[in-house]
Specification:
This protein has 7 helices and 13 strands. With 310 residues, it is of the alpha+beta class. Strand 1 and strand 2 form a beta hairpin. The longest helix is centred in the last third of the chain and has 21 residues.
Length: 310
């Protein structure tokens, strides 16, 4: 049974910001130009908005900049001002395998930690992701079982500092909700809150383990292999049949990728520390409105008993 991911939009209201906000820049290019640094930037998704139903990055909530020209402790990567990096002192390749007999037991290979976050209907987390939909399609269609083999090489953990600055566009949307609350515009509050969830997802990423690469092989079995997929989560040499693990690993040093993600619900970041210029009661009401919009997003995608085979 297919259930389309959707977001409630109960009000059709045109809302415009009084002051247009320009597209943000992280000043990475300027940083390199003024320091002649040739090291690559540690690309991170910290502070990114995250849709925990679809396991999809949808932009950023925390402003990211390179004004302080920080690097990792080993000097290999530029890192944003808002994050710090914990190096993994051991080296080596981690290999794991598992048998997944039901798609309902599937755990994401790239976002498991944030999928187990319990603030909303956690059983739905990740169930509308491409990874889960692909596995469900082949298991149900072929009445089969899936095996997954993964190869990882862990290097860093990246975390965001608690005293971050919010992205200007996100802050502006939150203030629009606050204005609607103070003017008792209930329908407008619902609409703006749902629009925020549509634009910014359900959660914000605050911690990411970084690997040079990850190789994931999926095979769905019946009496023999019905479907096979090899995924290489890396920007280096594309994986091809016959490539050696050593050659693949050597190409990945400058192409770090996120293999897991953890974070908190979107409304956690609407508080008196991030919005000191708003009245405290109003800030609390904005956070509640956004939390309720996320709850509606989950509920509209819930179909009780739709996978009950009895």
């Amino acid at each position: 049974m297919k259930v389309a991911t959707s977001l409630l939009a109960l009000s059709l209201l045109q809302v415009c910001s009084a002051v247009p906000i320009g597209h943000p820049t992280n000043w990475l290019r300027e940083c390199r130009a003024t320091t002649n640094l040739s090291v690559p930037a540690l690309e991170v998704l910290l502070g990114g908005r995250w849709d925990n139903l679809r396991n999809m990055d949808t932009g950023r909530v925390i402003n990211i900049g390179y004004f302080q020209r920080q690097t990792t402790g080993d000097g290999l990567y530029l890192i944003p001002d808002e994050v710090f990096v914990i190096p993994y002192k051991e080296t080596g390749v981690e290999t794991s395998s598992e048998i997944i007999s039901s798609w309902q037991e599937q755990k994401s290979s790239t976002s498991h930690s944030i999928n187990v976050e319990m603030s909303f209907i956690s059983v739905l987390n990740g169930k509308f992701s491409k990874e889960n939909q692909r596995m469900k399609t082949h298991q149900v269609k072929d009445s089969s079982t899936t095996t997954r083999v993964q190869v990882r090489n862990f290097i860093y953990t990246v975390k965001v500092y608690p005293d971050f600055t919010l992205d200007a566009r996100f802050a502006q949307q939150a203030k629009e909700i606050a204005d609607a609350i103070e003017n008792n515009q209930t329908r407008n509050v619902d609409y703006l809150s749902e629009r925020m969830v549509l634009d910014y997802g359900t959660h914000v990423i605050t911690t990411i383990p970084k690997y040079p690469a990850k190789l994931c092989a999926l095979q769905t079995y019946q009496s023999n292999i019905q479907y096979s997929l090899i995924q290489s989560h890396v920007g280096g040499i594309p994986f091809y049949p016959g490539i050696t693990l050593q050659k693949w690993q050597e190409s990945t040093r400058n192409n770090l990728v996120a293999i897991d993600r953890s974070g908190f619900p979107l409304h956690y970041f609407i508080n008196t520390n991030t919005f000191p210029d708003l009245p405290q009661p109003t800030v609390g009401k904005v956070a509640i409105a956004v939390s309720q919009a996320v709850e509606r997003y989950y509920k509209v995608n819930t179909r009780p008993w739709c996978v009950d085979v009895t």
